[in-house]
Specification:
single chain, mainly alpha, 74% helix, 0% strand
Length: 65
Amino acid sequence: MGAAQKIGHAAYQGPSVVKEIMIGITLGLMAGGLWKMHHWNNQKRSREFYNMLDKGLISVVVEDE
């Protein structure tokens, strides 16, 4: 067996289940975090809108000219 065969055999070890699980968990947490930030941003915008509406700063009624 030559040196090239030993190097070729050592290069491929197959999938690492633990590594793939950790990558999956990491990607899932990142995607979940982005979704949660999006949700919080929508909540903030809605809360600001209704606060302005309650204070009379804005109106949803179209004024006639």
